[in-house]
């Protein structure tokens, strides 16, 4: 059974996300600011620049690389796919979009004492690696155990948690690393599993493949009425 995933990406493309979806058995359809239609079986919201703080009721004091067109597109997509009950996976910015779409807010900057553990050093493009602690019974705990290492490349984080979301993993300093929804097939991560699997598999983190396998499995279950 074919599973078609809408991959909402930045204007620079989504090669790693597409490869991860393909490896998991899905068919990716990547686009920048795709139309608000729910004909695909699932939605993947990719990483990228910061969300305009006006979207969560704040003045801009630390947000950059804002793309208002992408904000509008992805907030509409998130609302539509969640309303349809279709599986949704959010990664980095995608986590933040889903939180804002459900009424949550963001920390516009995690501060100098934490950012050095969560994003690359000036002049480097290498992800940081750090440990996360997963909640018992969560998807991440099921796949990886209670403590494991992931990559990291962000300077913002979730603050007030959106309606229906449950925090299922945090960094050692307490930043939110993953959420699930209490009633809907939604998983969202602050880190980048597409850069931890396939050709990008690394030995200092867990394998990101189960994340994309989950998305495809959820779509298949829904198509088969399970």
CATH hierarchy, class: Alpha Beta
What Rg, in angstroms, do the CA atoms define?
16 Å
Approximately what portion of the residues adopt beta-strand conformation?
15-25%
CATH fold assignment: Rossmann fold
Q: Label the structural class.
A: alpha/beta
CATH superfamily: Class I glutamine amidotransferase (GATase) domain
- Head-to-tail CA distance between termini: 14 Å
Q: Going across the major beta sheet, what is the strand order?
A: 2-1-3-4-11-10-9-6-7
The average pLDDT score comes to 93
By DSSP, the count of extended strands is 11
Q: Given the structure, what is the number of helices?
A: 6
Which oligomeric form is depicted? Answer: single chain
List low-confidence stretches. none
Strand/helix succession: EHEEHEHEHEHEEEEEH
GO molecular function: hydrolase activity
Protein name: Gamma-glutamyl-gamma-aminobutyrate hydrolase family protein
Keywords: Hydrolase
InterPro entries: Class_I_gatase-like, Peptidase_C26, PuuD-like
Record keyword descriptors for this entry.
27% helix; two-stranded antiparallel ribbon; 9-stranded mixed sheet; 11 strands
Question: In brief, what are we looking at here?
Answer:
The protein has helices spanning 15-23, 68-84, 93-101, 112-115, 139-144, 209-223; strands at 4-9, 27-32, 42-45, 88-91, 106-107, 128-134, 147-152, 157-158, 165-171, 176-181, 186-189. The chain has 226 residues and is of the alpha/beta class.
